[in-house]
Structures are given as structure tokens and as C-alpha cells.
Amino acid sequence: MNPYNNKKLLAIIKRKAKKYKEIDKIAPSTRKNKKIDVFLKNGKKISIGDSRYKDFQLYKISKGLTFAKNRRRLYRIRHKKNAEKKGSPAFYAYHLLW
Predict the structure, then answer these.
(1) How far is CA 79 from CA 6, 17, 28, 29, 45, in A?
(2) Cross-strand partners of 26
(3) Distance between CA atoms of 50 and 31, rounded to whole angstroms?
(4) What integer pLDDT is reported at residue 5 of this predicted model?
(5) Closest alpha carbon to 36 in 21, 22, 51
(6) Which of 18, 20, 26, 54 has the most CB atoms lying inside 10 A of its own CB?
(7) What does the domain layout of the chain look like in residue ranges?
(8) Residue 67: Cβ within 10 Å count
(9) In whole angstroms, what is the distance from residue 28 CA to residue 65 CA?
(10) pTM over 0.90
(11) What Å distances lie between residue 20 and 34, 44, 45, 77, 92, CA to CA?
(12) Average pLDDT, consecutive stretches of 10 residues, N- to C-terminus, the chain (98 residues)
């Protein structure tokens, strides 16, 4: 089950997405094992986040803020160079989910 079918969790991601002018809308993913679909104004759809794994918001709910912040720090260290290309799935996962 996709945790981002929850309206509160999706609202958090939508607030983060307002920073990026190229994003048209955010919705729970229709692809198997993906959390979120990011729809860009140029017509592209990017699916991000594996629903089998937790992200910052899910860790915050299940393990607490301190644990979640540490997981985010470790994720960002691991994925820093993958997240540099604006418009890539890694970029949006890095900035929206973490």
C-alpha cells in the first residue's frame, strides 16, 4: 500500500513542491512500488520514491524526529551527487521526500 494515499502526508509534499516552478501537480503514484508522481508543466511525469522503503516523513512518524533527521543526513550524504541534475527523479526524491 502506498503511504502517500494519506492526505496529510501528501499535503506536506505538496507544500515542499511549491518551491519548484516547473512542478504542475503532485499525486500518489499509480506505478507499482512508487510513492509519488510529479507532473511537470512540460507534460512529463516522474515517479519518485520506493513505497517499500521509508523516507523522512515516514521515519518521523514511526521512529521520531531525531531518528528521522539522522536518516535524512545519511540519505543526503549517499545521494548528493545523484541529486544535482534538476528534473531527474533523484533530484525530486532528494528535495521532496528528504
Answers:
(1) 26, 19, 23, 22, 21
(2) 38
(3) 10
(4) 86
(5) 51
(6) 26
(7) 3-97
(8) 12
(9) 24
(10) no
(11) 21, 15, 15, 22, 10
(12) 87 94 95 95 95 94 97 95 90 95
